Amino acid sequence: MRVAIAGAGAVGRSIAAELIDGGHQVMLIERQAHQFEPETVEQADWVLGDACEVSTLEESGIERCDVVIAATGDDKVNVVVSLLAKTEFAVRRVVARVNNPANEWLFTEAWGVDVAVSTPRILAAMVEEAVSVGDLVRLMTFRHGQANLVELTLPDETPLAGRPVREIALPRDAALVTILRGERVIVPQPEDPLEAGDELLFVAPAEVEPDIRKALLEG
């Protein structure tokens, strides 16, 4: 993929390095001269300019990008970049960093955001997940709240132990996307057996989350 990142601070550079290691093409857009340091991520294309300006985005060729990541430390900037990327340049996927949780309500599809990433929320979810085996934990919200990424760890006494994935009586709109087992990441197949301690990740709307929990804990 070709990915544009608005904001070349520590967060933007770290994301760029990870994506480059994954074989993607990355462009970093930075408006502050003191943070314009191409030598820090040499494999990326660097653009010195304001990502909130349509002219900067045009000159950078952002319309050729598959994904735009608004990763600055300013929520107002991230919202504007997201809106421009989606509405003016029809970028297929827009991901935005939320710095202040009080601003999360702004980061919606109406403002061009497909995925909003709030570090405080994710950290809180990770802590909750670590201490709540058997409870359904919401990790991330997609598409203006239309779907969530949720996790549940099967307890030691789970009635599903040894039973195949196909026997989970999931509600219609829920999808099991990954099983984490120790250090393994398993793409679930219908005949794969479940084990106590498995971390199951689902994408589902909020209204069916209680049904997921019931299906997993009651078997």
Would you kindly provide a written description of the structure presented here, covering whatever features stand out?
With 219 residues, this protein is α/β, with parallel strands linked by helices. Helices cover 25% and strands 26% of the residues. The chain contains five helices and eleven strands. The strands form two sheets. It has a six-stranded parallel sheet with strand order 3-2-1-4-5-6, with helices on both faces. It has a five-stranded antiparallel sheet with strand order 7-8-11-9-10. The model has no long low-confidence stretch (mean pLDDT 89). Pfam families: TrkA_C, TrkA_N.
Gap between N and C termini = 40 Å
Beta-strand fraction estimate: 25-35%
Q: What Rg, in angstroms, do the CA atoms define?
A: 20 Å
| Strands ordered across the widest β-sheet | 3-2-1-4-5-6
Q: Please provide the count of β strands.
A: 11
Q: Percent helix among the residues?
A: 25-40%
Order of helices and strands: EHEEHEHEEHEEEEEH
Low-pLDDT stretches = none
The major beta sheet can be summarized as: 6 strands, parallel
Shape: elongated
